[in-house]
Amino acid sequence: MRTLDLLAETRREVDVAYRDLPFDSGPVYVVAPEHGDLHTYSLTPCRNGTRICGGAGGVGHLTRTPDYFKVTGAYAGRTFYLSPGGDGILEWQGVERELAWN
Q1: pTM of the model
Q2: CA–CA separation, 37 vs 41, rounded Å?
Q3: I want to staple 52 with a disulfide (CB 3.0 to 4.6 A). Which of 27, 60, 78, 97 is the partner?
Q4: Alpha carbon distance 95, 22 (integer Å)
């Protein structure tokens, strides 16, 4: 039998109902710190919506976890975890950095 975290499930339902979701209105633009500077990334649905393309030409995959939209492969070595509402995590070289998306 699976146990349910009612608070987490309620938060997820509120996120989906009332917050902006990544890719709902097209491309997502990400800002995150790297090397002490802010870097920007564009993530655009491509190939008839089946993939996510990065601004540098990479073609990535989008998967959905309970809390994040996870994008891999759009930018070499980087994984984007986009949460509803405009924030998330950029994982690069084993380090997690906060990000903002729009």
Answers
A1: 0.86
A2: 13
A3: 60
A4: 22
Q: Please name the residue that has the structure tokens 């190939």.
A: 47
Which amino acid appears at position 11 of this protein?
R
Q: What mean pLDDT is predicted for residues 20-48?
A: 94
Q: Please say whether the beta carbons of 38 and 32 come within 8 A.
A: yes
- For the residues 40-60, what does the mean pLDDT come to? 95
Half-sphere exposure of 83 (CA within 13 A, CB side): 14
Q: What are phi and psi of 45, to 5 degrees?
A: -60, 135
Q: What is the pLDDT of residues 64-94, one digit of tens each?
A: 998 999 999 999 999 999 999 999 999 999 9
Give the list of residues 6+ apart from residue 38 with CB closer than 8 angstroms, or none. Answer: 31, 32
| Dihedral sign of CA atoms 26, 65, 58, 99 in order | positive
The amino acid present at 27, given as its one-letter code, is P
The domain defined by 6-101 folds into: Lipocalin (2.40.128)
Does the CA dihedral 50-89-65-72 come out positive or negative? positive
